[in-house]
Amino acid sequence: MPEPDSPLRQAPDSLMLTGFWYRALPADRVHRNQLHKCMLLEIPLVIGRDRAGRPFALRDACPHRGMPLHCGKFDGENVECSYHGWQFDAHNGQCQVIPSLTADQNLKVDRIYAGSYPCEEQDGFVWVYIPEPSPQAAGFSKPEEAPEAAPTIEKFGGKYKLAYLTADMPVSIDHGIIGLMDPAHGPFVHQAWWWRSRHSIHEKTKNFEPIPNGFRMSAHTPSSNSAPYKLLRLYAEAGSTTTTIDFVLPNLRRETIRAGRYWFSSLTTVTPITRNQCRIDVVAAWNIFRWMPFGPELLKFVFAKFVEQDRRTMELQAEGLKHNPHLMLIDDADRPAKWYFQLKAAHLEAKRTGGEMKHPMAGPVTLRWRS
Ligand code: FES
Ligand SMILES: [Fe+2]
């Protein structure tokens, strides 16, 4: 039994959660009448945009003999397989044409489906809903519907800028996520003369509270750790600035900073690509620098630097993880990571039993660490 203060050994299982929306590709990389390869949760997908600009996602395998559909042709409506020319409706995967059939052969073409996934464009990304795997009659199952719309970035007014950053991380989804919520690496990984040094390390106290499927670092006046905060401070009284950071299963981190009528809001996701690879996408919306010449560039520069430092760190960490070392999580700095694993376990348990998810946090918690 671990003592309350002893390190808790907990091996990430890198299990990828189905039944959620995931970011697939930046919307500006998905062009009309073109087919793009993409992988999510080890599922190969082909993503495109129809004639009207509406995105779609199909499984990248022809239900006939498995040819990747991205090798085929797309006329803005139907995807044609490059092997035997079967054609599928891009949005629901329903087979339209089998060129080899003769007039008197009555195979019911419209009962055949290429795998298809709910797909939406939201805040500059194409999102794909990955349903729970169900026993499917391969090639004959109709597409599933998503129970809710894809996640959006919270905005506090109609006029804002939007920008994104994306980086591949050669680690499992679990390491990607706990790396994202880990406060203790800041002074060591994110050093820069214009930002902070390891000598700026100091004790911090943060309040957390449970929220559905996740936890919130409660609204507080930020100390000095958040990039946009340093910039926002130029615009408003330090005391009037509040920030909240939420983590919600399976992979969403929302940060909201408000200073009077100015706001900055971001939605960061860590998306499982394969068991050993994930991708971090940061999308931010803000109304602060719209008139300031280099504002957005400055913000993007700061974020790009951060994300690159994290990416480089995880690349090195992946070396160390190759041979399955024992790992530990300690209090309080790794407590958010522990909550992540507990939330994930609770979610899976609720799915298994069909009952309500039992939230691992009973109420508000105050954590202290030095960073
Ligand atoms: S493999 Fe696609 S049409 Fe035959
Ligand atoms: Fe980081």
For the structure shown, list the relevant keywords.
single chain; about 375 residues; alpha+beta; four-stranded antiparallel β-sheet; 5 helices; about 15% helix; about 30% strand; globular; disordered N terminus; binds FE2/S2 (inorganic) cluster; binds fe (ii) ion
How are the SSEs ordered, and which strands pair?
Layout: E1 20-26, E2 35-40, E3 43-49, E4 55-59, E5 73-74, E6 78-80, E7 87-89, E8 95-97, E9 116-117, E10 119-122, E11 125-130, E12 161-169, H1 173-180, H2 186-189, E13 203-211, E14 214-220, H3 227-232, E15 241-248, E16 252-259, E17 262-274, E18 277-286, H4 295-321, H5 335-353, E19 365-370
Antiparallel strand pairs: 1-11, 2-3, 3-4, 4-9, 5-6, 6-7, 7-8, 10-11, 12-18, 13-14, 13-19, 14-15, 15-16, 16-17, 17-18
The structure holds FE2/S2 (inorganic) cluster (FES) and fe (ii) ion.
Strand order of the largest sheet: 12-18-17-16-15-14-13-19
**Over all CA atoms, what is the radius of gyration?**
23 Å
Strand content: 25-35%
Give the SSE string: EEEEEEEEEEEEHHEEHEEEEHHE
Which structural class matches the secondary elements? alpha+beta
SS elements, strand count: 19
Helicity, in percent?
Answer: 10-25%
Shape: globular
Which ions, cofactors or small ligands are bound in this entry? FE2/S2 (inorganic) cluster, fe (ii) ion
pLDDT averaged residue by residue: 88
Intertermini distance:
29 Å
Note the main sheet: 8 strands, antiparallel
Low-confidence stretches: 1-6
